[in-house]
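Example record used in the benchmark description.
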Amino acid sequence: MKKIFAGILTLALAAVALRVTQNRRNGMLRFTLLHPIFEALDANQDGTISAAEIGNAPAALRTLDRNHDGNLTADELLPKPGRSGHNSDQNINEIIGQLRSFDRNGDGRLTPEELPERFQGLFTRGDSNRDGLLDAAELRALAEQADADAARVDFWPGGFTHDDPIFTALDADHDGIVSSSEIEHAASSLRALDRNGDGKLTIEEFRPARLSRP
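Model output (C-alpha cells):
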C-alpha cells in the first residue's frame, strides 16, 4: 500500500511540475508575441539575444521609431496588431462594428459630427491622411491598436515600463521613454542584464519577474 501511495504521489507531483513548466512556457510565448523590443532584438527568433544581436541593438531599436523622432515612446512599443491572443480577430471586428454604428449616413466613413464628444480623440489618433474623415482602413487600424493596447494592459497589469527588465535596462533615466542617447548606448545597457557573463541574454535573464512564477 505504501508503495502504491508513493507511486501516486510521485505521479501527482510530476503532473504539477509539468503544468507549472507549461504555464511558464505559455507565459514566455505570450511575452515574446507582445514585446516589440524583444522581437526587434531577437533577429533570428531563437528566444535568445546573442552577443551579435546585443551589439546590433541600436540599429534594431531604431526600426521601432515609427515617427522618426529618434526616441521610442509608449505608443511605439505596443504589441503588433492581432497579437492579443485568443479571439483577437473577433475583438477587432467587434470594435469596428461598434465604430461603424455611428455612421449615420451609411457611407462607410465617420465624420467628427457623427461621433459623440467623448470619441473625438479618435480623429487625432486615427485620421492618418488628415482628411477629416475616418475611412475603412483607418477604422481597422484604430481597432487593431485598441486590441493591442488591451492585450498589453491585460498582460502587464503593473505597467510595461515598470515591470519589464529589458525596457528598464534601456530606459536609463526611467522617464518612460527610450531616448536617442539611450538607444545609442543600448548594447551596454543590455549587457548589464547578462548575469552569468556568457555574452548573451537568455530567457532566465530577461523575463519579467511575474513570469518566474507559475
